Amino acid sequence: EIHIKEPIEKEVNPHLLPGELLLCEASTVYKYVQEDGSNRGTYGKLVCTNFKISFLDDDSASDDNEPQFKNKIVGENDITLQCVDQIYGVYDEKKKLLTGQLRKYPEKLIIYCKDLRVFNFCLRYTKEEEVKRIVSGIVHHSQTPKLLKRLFLFSYASAAPNNTDGRNQTVMFETLEDWRDELERTKGNVKYKAVTTNEGYRVSEKLPLYFVVPICISEESILKYEGRGIPIWCWSCHNGAALLKMSTFPKEQDDSTSQMQKAFLDGIYKTISKPPYELLKMDDLSSSLPSLQDIQTAYTRFKQLFLIDNSTDFWATDVKWFSLLESTNWLEIIRRVLKKAMEVAECLEIQHTNVLLIEESATDLCCVISSLVQVMMDSYSRTKSGFQSLIQKEWVIGGHSFLDRCNHLHKSEKEEAPVFLLLLNCVWQLVQQYPPAFEFTETYLTVLSDSLYVPIFSTFFFNSQHQRDTNKSGESLKTQSGPFRFLTVWDWSVQFEPKALAFLNNPLYAEKPKPDRSQRKTARFKHQRQLSLPLTQAKPSTKRGFFREETDHLIKNILGKRIGKFINSSDEPPNSLREFYDSWHSKPVDYHGLLLPRIDGPEIKVWAQRYLRWIPEAQLHGGGTIATAAKILDLMEEVQSLQVKMDEEHSQSVSGDAHSVPMLRNSARLSSLFPFALLQRQSVKPALPTSTWKDLEDEDDLVKRDDEFVDLSGDML
């Protein structure tokens, strides 16, 4: 059965941004509703521009039923070219990956996106010539290698009127003053100095123009090996201990060069490590954390669990959910990274020891760990502007290779690794464990992860500050209007209206109180912490899991089999870390002090909002965190309206801030997928959807198992 809407009376044209060009289009394309295997959907036009792939139906022409959380740049049926992950064609019911030149054109097109959306288009009713143009156009523009200057970023920057400042309160770290202010804020200016040695990039193109080093490091030392082997300052703790990072020398060197480099490093270490006054701990992240290849492999497996074609596929994998999730190793990597950040925090906080993070380039895992340590130890980094400044400092200016790691240009898959996504996943664990400690919400983190693939902002589309600066000139384009003025992603008003922006701010954020030591001693926060690191090593197991032993009986009831136990990894934490962890978790939480994540097995969760938001089967009607948030926002709106009435009583002036929170009426009808998807159809789980369910048919606790499934899914999601 095919559901056909009335023919479109008027021509539906795509909404084009400044600099956006229509490249190819096809009419009478049928878009399937991602559902239960039926062929329901709608007809429309499929277009490809130099910015996005877009499906236009008659709904696109009207502004009715617009979602409250509408993105002004990327619509519901838009896919930016950088957001396309893989494209499959269906030939005689068989899926085939589409790359390069095509000899035969498919009857159906499936587009998998990096934000986990799945689009199914039927081309059977489209003219053959249009099919050839649109399929080859989409594959060419989204999958083949391209030059940096061919990114839409440059077309947009040269054509768009730049009337937004976009900085807000975010520190961009592009000037020497920004670095000096940060040193002063963290009281690090006693032992560290901001240097101008790299002005004109005469030291290295990988280093930022300005950075901070220990006061005793000379300019000659920085120049000697292009900045390699130099401890670069990240952050200073309240007790004076500092977090530093350093890039290592290439491994393939002849003996004489290696000896010289070793002597150079020994000299550097002696200048910054002066026991017992200045202690230094070095941590080589390449040996203590998973490799980038391991991270990429784990994430590739993990995301496959959420790229669901239809309802049948969802229920077929549902019965194996825990074992599939565990086998990806993604949650285990998150746990290991959080544990490493806690080790560093313990050195800084308890042992008063400087920590030097070492990595080949110091721009991947160093960025993850240094950012996490600051989020855990510095409450400023848990505000919105503070977190954005942190990303600027450690990632954008710090030289993380966004272009290569996100593979925006499709140059090399070997360089691809979701390092920044790994950080956001780790920060999300902290946000969902300690919501009042963060000024921003999980929706903010989800939107930030989506912005990785929107090439109108320069933030995530360069490998270094040098690359950004050298590509700012507009000489290669026809318009000789001087340098490009790129937008920064931190100007959220470019993507969202004020009403939608309210979803990014946490209404329950605990504002930092004025320091009052007498009150601080007597304050008692109601906060339960029942889970802590196990005191003894669990039984050895061939399978590394992420569940604690106590949860095994529950899993056994649900799945009819036992999932691997949560065990400590082979590198069992030292006693000092375990004592530090247990001691902290035995005290009330200070939401503006140190935060330590709970990392026991079931405490590391799947970031449900990001990964499950497009799957109707996974939604909770009237449930999830959004239902709670909706009630709070309703209450805030009521308080604000009462405040306006009170102001009117006392004076004739009316407050203009009455609509700073979105109106969420009928919040009981929202689903847990909100605000990214509006209320979806009710998905009913079939009693025995697959043969795997039939295997469990003989068990006499089926009813009980279903009840427990509901409880656990609510907890897990």
TrEMBL record:
InterPro entries: MTMR12-like_C, MTMR12_PTP, Myotubularin, Myotubularin-like_Pase_dom, PH-like_dom_sf, Prot-tyrosine_phosphatase-like. It is found in: Cytoplasm, Myofibril, Sarcomere; Sarcoplasmic reticulum. Pfam families: 3-PAP, Myotub-related. Residues 173-611 form the Myotubularin phosphatase domain. GO terms for biological process: phosphatidylinositol dephosphorylation. The keyword Heme does not apply. It comes from the Eukaryota. Keywords: Cytoplasm, Sarcoplasmic reticulum. One of its GO terms (cellular component) is sarcomere. Belongs to the protein-tyrosine phosphatase family. Non-receptor class myotubularin subfamily. PANTHER family: MYOTUBULARIN-RELATED (PTHR10807), MYOTUBULARIN-RELATED PROTEIN 12 (PTHR10807:SF37). This is Myotubularin-related protein 12. The lineage of its organism: Eukaryota, Metazoa, Chordata, Craniata, Vertebrata.
